[in-house]
Each structure stands twice: as structure tokens, then as C-alpha cells.
Amino acid sequence: MNWIKSTLSAAVGTQEPIYGPEAIQSVAQQTAETPYTVMTKDHLKWKAYQYTNVETQTFYIMSDNGDLVFVQIIYSNIAGIHTTAHFNTKIFNKNGSDGEQIWFTDGLSNFMFDEHMLSFGADNLTLTLNEEGDSYHLKSTVNPGCLVDLKFTRKAPGFVVGKDGTSYFGTDPANPWGSMSHAFWARCAVEGSITTKDKTYDLAGRGVFIPALQGMKPHHAASRWNFINFQTPTYSAIMMEYTTPPSYGSTKVNVGAILKDDEIIYAGTTNAVTHTASEPDATSDWPQPTSIKWEWTGKTAAGEEVSAIVDGPLGTRLDRIDVMGEVPGFIKAIAGSVAGARPYIFQFSPKDKLSLNLKIGDKEVSEEGFMFSESTFIS
């Protein structure tokens, strides 16, 4: 009966029943035995499942010139009967007011994967992984107003938290009906540019690459999201946290890591996000955060205690995205019409640098860096 209810809700967008927290097998359960796993090329393969899911490969860029950009390929399947692919590019105007962004979203035609499911192509777009599995080259002329030519090269090991980076949903752990997974290249060197009708952006700098898969309807998997990408000259701090809807016990799943130069200091699930101050947003009716504290706690591979904090005001909001109003139609089809689903994304990157305060064993360091963060409210 649970399977029938889940299938019905996935197909037509109805509200899910209350299964309870035991119906999610969080990736945190894997970390007692395996805190994290270093990625191989196999982890980078597109899955292209034949059921409702959204698969993304997202590249975040913090250029040496101060530009903040992300580019993203989205591959989606609706109920196993309709597949689509989109290419998104967003260039943030950090010196402008809220909403002054350059945003492109374009449907892709004749999209396909290579025989190894490692590279992706479509009309006027290629995403190619090199033979070594440590560098992507992305070229797009899909939109004449946004010409993309970027190279991402991994500088520290990629990782998934736990054994496979995946949380599973369903009342029978042996036969889950949904999943959520993330993988991370948290320290990358970026080369290349994006050319719009007004300007060519030299995007040499730092980057983060995150392949992710939501193997179920997004609003069934999560009601809240928090994400931080924090980069200093020496360190990278990454955290992704989502909270399930009451259907799965409002369970928090948090994955994160601290990296230094070419090594992983810590990766795991014992992290926390706290909105230390917020204010009502009149447009969305959500409590927009104005200050957030991010905390990482764990151990190095050698067993030393690790703790890290990024804490401070978020500054002027970069953007507020009404997801249902702006995303492509296929996402709306996946989301369905569910009472209480009102997805908004709040994006931030403070003009004033914040600090990563890190303690490893008895050693304490503090280093300023640039932050990009998102807080998402769904239902």
C-alpha cells in the first residue's frame, strides 16, 4: 500500500502520507563505517534513470576579478515518459541591487551521452571529461547572447560522503522508491570566459563542481535547503543541508567538508546550519535569513578533532527566485500542484569578507574568504 501511495503521489503530485523518519535511510548511517569516499570516474557517470528524477551538473565560479557565476546542465525525466535537458547560466552583479542578474535558461535539443556516460552533448553544446577524469571542458553557443567556454580542473580529491553519497527514501530499505545524492569537487581551478552581448567575462579563478541527483519529486524529498560555498586562498568549506517534509519525519540530512590545498581535512555529516537572524520577506512570506552560522565538526583521517565555523551577516541579498515563476516548464511538471508548496530561493554573497575559523587538534587558524550561499524554502 505504501508503494501504491508513493507511486500515485509521484505520478500526479498529490501530498504524500506520513511515513515517519524510519522511511529515510540517511547517508549519515553510512558514515559510521565510511566517513567519505574519494571519487573515481565512475562517480561522475550520468545516471539517466528511466523514472521521475532531476539530474544536475553545476559549476560554481568565483573569478579572480570578483565575478560570481554558475553554469548548470539539468537532465530530467518525468514519470519515465518524457525527458528534457536545459542549460542555465547566471552571472551575479555583486555591486548592483537585488535582482540585477544576467540569467539565461535554454532548452537543449538532440542531447546525448557518450558511451561511457561521462560526457554530455547537445546541439551547440559539449561537456567533455578528460581521460584522467580530473578536468571538464564546457563549450556552449546554444544562446548567441551567452557564449560559454570554460575549463574546470580538480585541485583536491573529489568525494562523496559515506559509501555512495546517497540517502534513500522508502519504507522497505531493500527497495527504496526515491533517493537524493551529491558529489563534490570542492577545490577547482577555472579557466575561460563567458561572452554576452555587452561584455566578455574573464573567469580565471576558483571553482566548485557538484553533480547531484534527486531521484523523486523535489518537494517530496525536501522542504528546506541550505548551501554554502566558502573559498579562501588556502581552504575550501562546503556544506549542503536539506530537511525532509513531515512525510519523512522532518529529518535533516547534512553533508559537508573542509579541504586545504590538495587534501581533504574532513568530510562527513556531523555539521549544522543555524539561521541566527531573519526577517519576514513580504513577497514570498518566508523568513528570509539575514545572518547564518555554519558549523563543521568531525575528525581527520588520522583521528584528530576538527571543528570549523563561518558565522556572520549575509549582507544585501543577491537575488530572490520564485522557482515556480521562473524555472522551465519541466520543473513545474515535476513539482506538480501540492498544497503548501511555495518554493523560493534566497541567494547571498556578502561584499564584506567573512572568516573561516578552523581548529585541527590544538592548532587554530582563521582565514578570510568569499562566500556564496543559498537558503531555499519549499513547503
UniProtKB/TrEMBL annotation:
Residues 54-214 form the Svf1-like N-terminal domain. It is a peripheral membrane protein. The keyword Cytoplasm applies. Pfam families: Svf1, Svf1_C. Coiled coil: none annotated. One of its GO terms (cellular component) is nucleus. SUPFAM superfamilies: AttH-like (SSF159245). It is found in: Cytoplasm; Endoplasmic reticulum membrane; Golgi apparatus, cis-Golgi network membrane; Nucleus. Gene3D superfamilies: AttH-like domain. The keyword Transmembrane does not apply. Residues 216-379 form the Svf1-like C-terminal domain. GO terms for biological process: lipid transport; response to oxidative stress. Keywords: Cytoplasm, Endoplasmic reticulum, Golgi apparatus, Lipid transport, Membrane, Nucleus, Transport. PANTHER family: CERAMIDE-BINDING PROTEIN SVF1-RELATED, SVF1-LIKE PROTEIN YDR222W-RELATED. Ceramide-binding protein that may transfer ceramides from the endoplasmic reticulum membrane to the cis-Golgi network membrane, and is thereby required for the biosynthesis of complex sphingolipids. Belongs to the SVF1 family. This is Ceramide-binding protein SVF1. It comes from Penicillium chermesinum.
